[in-house]
């Protein structure tokens, strides 16, 4: 059985960031998770500010969803709370699927998502009278990582990853030398995103070939910090999660290059940005309830996010989108353009250029 660990990440600073609490069955337990060892720059340094009186804002903004998007949204929340401390921001992590469950039930204002919303989730939102504005905020490259003492794995083909993670591998592929005969006869310990995670959806779609389908005998969590710590403590471990978490733990982990048929390519800002790191590069999003944009504190938060999208994405160690993408997103907010530009679910192989073409329609 999969070892599912649903947790919530709490910002442990004196800025009113607290855990979301609700009745949703997908909601995580309030187990604190450490923030990155390095502190972000001064939250409001060099920011472009919306033309609004921040001191006049009040109320509460509820956000939940993807642990992948969490580091970006957290930085926005820190900056916003410094500018407008009278607004309470409740920021939770229950995975993309868990976040959409709460969002479409009307429990949150903004949902972090590491994949586009699924058709079934859109139908739930519609049934509950929830309309949304879909906003890409950065590009990510899912990183496959191992312990630094693992000196045998430098590159994996997509076919080898599929052999590790397919349902047929469950209880069968359990040792490294079953992947390549010259690798050690040692246990293969797998760590990855839980089933409520958009990262799980994307990885299974890109690697296994079907979204939401994989072996179940691995250690799973919707929190990427825990996964990074797990692999960092396991010489025989292999895991996958968002690029920012690999970059944060780069002194304790090693990224494996991926061969998609065009040679081995390791994840980096450059290879994610230029489209070489495939099929594991992907856009990441926030979804905002359209009716909540009428609330000044929510609209200002979203404007601050997008006007400084490149800075916040870079601070969180992700790949910023071109300035045109953020301008198009701001236009979508201004026009209250609702719905998704995607067919629903993971979009494997999408490049930044293709995303821009979709955004500009």
TrEMBL record:
Coiled coil: none annotated. Belongs to the PstS family. One of its GO terms (molecular function) is phosphate ion binding. This is Phosphate-binding protein. Residues 1-25 form the signal peptide. CDD domains: PBP2_phosphate_like_2. It comes from Chloroflexus aggregans (strain MD-66 / DSM 9485). Residues 58-303 form the PBP domain. One of its GO terms (biological process) is phosphate ion transport. Gene3D superfamilies: Periplasmic binding protein-like II (3.40.190.10).
């Amino acid at each position: 059985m999969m070892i599912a660990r649903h947790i919530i990440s709490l910002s442990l600073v004196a800025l009113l960031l607290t855990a979301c609490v609700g009745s949703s069955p997908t909601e995580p337990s309030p187990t604190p998770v450490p923030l990155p060892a390095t502190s972000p720059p001064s939250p409001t340094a060099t920011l472009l500010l919306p033309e609004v009186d921040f001191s006049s804002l009040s109320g509460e903004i509820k956000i939940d969803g993807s642990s992948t998007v969490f580091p970006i949204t957290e930085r926005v929340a820190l900056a916003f709370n410094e500018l407008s401390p009278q607004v309470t921001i409740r920021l939770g992590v229950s995975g993309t699927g868990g976040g959409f469950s709460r969002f479409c039930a009307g429990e949150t204002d903004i949902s972090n998502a590491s994949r586009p919303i699924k058709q079934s989730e859109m139908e739930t939102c519609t049934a509950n009278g929830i309309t949304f504005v879909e906003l890409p905020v950065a590009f990510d490259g899912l990183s496959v990582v191992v312990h630094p003492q693992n000196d045998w794995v430098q590159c994996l083909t997509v076919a080898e990853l599929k052999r590790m993670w397919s349902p047929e591998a469950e209880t069968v592929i359990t040792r490294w030398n079953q992947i390549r005969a010259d690798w050690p006869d040692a246990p293969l310990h797998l760590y990855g995103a839980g089933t409520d995670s958009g990262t799980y959806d994307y990885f299974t779609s890109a690697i296994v070939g079907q979204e939401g389908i994989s072996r179940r005998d691995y250690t799973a969590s919707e929190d990427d910090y825990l996964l990074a710590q797990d692999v960092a403590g396991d010489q025989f471990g292999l895991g996958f999660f968002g690029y920012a978490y690999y970059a944060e733990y780069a002194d304790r982990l090693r990224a494996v290059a991926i061969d998609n048929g065009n040679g081995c390519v390791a994840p980096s800002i450059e290879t994610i940005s230029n489209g070489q790191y495939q099929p594991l590069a992907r856009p990441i999003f926030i979804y905002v309830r359209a009716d909540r944009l009428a609330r000044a504190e929510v609209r200002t938060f979203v404007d601050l996010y997008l006007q400084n999208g490149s800075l916040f994405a870079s601070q969180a160690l992700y790949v910023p989108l071109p300035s045109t993408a953020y301008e198009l997103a701001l236009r979508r907010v201004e026009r209250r353009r609702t719905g998704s530009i995607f067919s629903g679910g993971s979009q494997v192989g999408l490049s930044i250029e293709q995303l821009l073409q979709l955004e500009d329609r």
